[in-house]
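HOLO CASE FILE
Compound: (6S)-5,6,7,8-tetrahydrofolate
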Amino acid sequence: MKIIGEKINGTRKRVAQAIAERDAEFIKELAQKQADAGSSWLDVNAGTHPEKEPDDLIWLIENIQSVVDTPLCLDSANPAALNVAIKAVNKTPMINSISGEPDRLEKILPIVAEHGCEVIALAMDDKKIPETFEKRMEVIEKVMEATRTAGVADNKVYVDPLALTIATMNQSAIIACDTIRAVHAKYPEVHFTMGLSNISFGLPARKQINRAFLILAMQAGLDSAIMDPLDKELVAAAITAELLLGQDKHCLNYVRASRKGLFE
Ligand code: THG
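Model generated. Tokens follow.
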């Protein structure tokens, strides 16, 4: 289970404030903590207006890279911002994201192909999220046709089945898991990820829901998630689920986590 640390996101109030005030120390600390907690990538989302986004992304990237060497996951739908950001990174980043939207495929996929990036592919098009796993699968088939044509290997693609909140969509978790299973059956090399906490939006005790959902989705084939790496119980759930799914040879990772006090 690979973690994409979610915390450097300008849609969060405190991060928006740090970006506006150029509070570098706050961002560096978020980067350091998430890296120390075992993140494989750090998501970077400036969450600002398109005109400000390139400058803000560069500022974030430079500060993050001054303290950690964890690869970044550039979270933007803005090709201009991505084109600028990609020149500022020290390591090949993951791009978050493309989708079935023709505009994104035309403008973002070439960046991915040129730089050999990993890329998150959302199971939606033109801002519409299909309501059945079959329709999400159709979108992903279209996206995979495009990534293959662009020369992006299947194992560089991370499909995001999109988990909408269970508060308003009773079958949301099931649909996400079914989408993962269907995509995996047809494209066995493809990876999966998702914004885990979407599932619990609008409900109390969200961490409880996020944790149970992570385990269900891992059973379906989820192998990475955009999540809070500082939530110890969530990380503990991931490591334990991995153990039970036969993904932890000789139980080494589980035992190491236990020795480090993760389960206390
Ligand atoms: N899929 C993909 N990318 C994504 C998402 C997705 N990027 C953005 C988002 N969804 C995932 N990232 C976050 C980042 C932070 C929080 C949630 C999702 C977060 N949420 C808390 C909350 O909502 O209560 C706290 C808010 C706060 O601290 O202000 O922190 O689905 N591909």
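CASE NOTES: DSSP finds eleven helices and eight strands in the chain. Strands lie at 2-5, 41-44, 72-75, 94-98, 118-122, 157-160, 191-192, 224-227.
CLOSED: yes
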